[in-house]
Design a protein that fits this description.
2 domains, two-stranded parallel sheet, Rossmann fold, single chain, alpha/beta, globular, about 270 residues, 5-stranded mixed beta sheet
């Protein structure tokens, strides 16, 4: 939808397993035409964008590259990059592949939640394979700019390590909090009556697509597990401050977090 609104392509074709999704995508103006068969959908495409869960991308890549022109740029929107880059490197023959990851989205999925304003001023990671295809990078940087986002070129390793902390760990923390409160609700029957905006906002990410998040966890194991260990240490430290009544250290930690978030997002909450 963003590409069509920006006039960044002469024709946008969609491929999906569900004809209902394709019909709805046409109705909403996301695509010019839809196909159930991937061969038809990618025929003569200048850019093929893979927007599926990561392990689906890994599964279809070997067959997909045999059906596209050597000039076609293969682009994906997966939330982890190292596993995809590794798979591309093992494919027979050269592929014009560039990884992509827009740092924008909501917990909602499906064509009815699509928003052509989603990428406005968002960071958009571009992850080159080896060797780097400079012309492909240039073409995709232009496309990203046209839909309103800011392209940043980054290696797969750095990308996966950073998003493990800024995206994947927040999801897991929301999941853990949701499970912990549900467990309490099984013992305390009035629990949900006290689950107000703070709980809602903090656990919003737990409503994300389970299949997509499962793929993310299983294709970015090491950075995520490393982040989990860091979180454990910080939680244990906060617990120790509370247990010992160490007000000075507790205030210092809370203030540091408050100021860090204010610097990043420009808002301060005192309540």
């Amino acid at each position: 939808m963003a590409i069509r609104k920006a006039g960044a392509a002469s024709r946008v074709v969609g491929v999906d397993l569900d004809p209902g999704t394709l019909n709805r995508a046409c109705e909403r103006g996301a695509i010019d035409e839809g196909f159930l068969n991937i061969d038809e959908g990618i025929y003569e495409a200048e850019i093929v964008i893979l927007a599926t869960p990561v392990r689906s991308i890994l599964r279809i890549l070997p067959e997909l590259v045999t059906k596209i022109s050597p000039d076609t740029i293969l682009f994906d929107l997966g939330s982890t990059k190292k596993a995809i880059i590794s798979t591309v490197a093992e494919l027979a023959g050269p592929v014009r592949y560039i990884g992509g990851h827009p740092m924008a989205g909501t917990e909602h999925t499906g064509i009815d939640h699509a928003d052509d304003q989603l990428f406005n001023n968002a960071t958009f990671a571009l992850v080159p394979s080896n060797p780097t295809d400079e012309k492909a990078i240039e073409a995709l940087s232009g496309l990203v700019h046209k839909i309103g986002a800011r392209p940043i070129i980054i290696s797969a390793e750095n990308h996966d390590r950073i998003v493990s902390m800024t995206s994947h760990l927040p999801y897991l923390l929301a999941v853990v909090l949701s499970l912990a409160v549900e467990k309490m609700a099984n013992r305390e029957n009035k629990t949900w009556e006290f689950a107000a905006s703070g709980f809602r906002d903090t656990t919003r990410l737990a409503g994300a697509n389970v299949r997509m998040m499962t793929d993310i966890c299983l294709t970015n194991k090491e950075p995520i597990l490393s982040g989990v260990e860091e979180i454990k240490i910080l939680l244990d430290t906060l617990a120790e401050h509370i247990e010992k009544g160490n007000e000075l250290e507790l205030v210092r930690a809370l203030t540091q977090a408050n100021e860090s978030r204010t610097t990043l997002f420009g808002e301060r909450r005192s309540d």
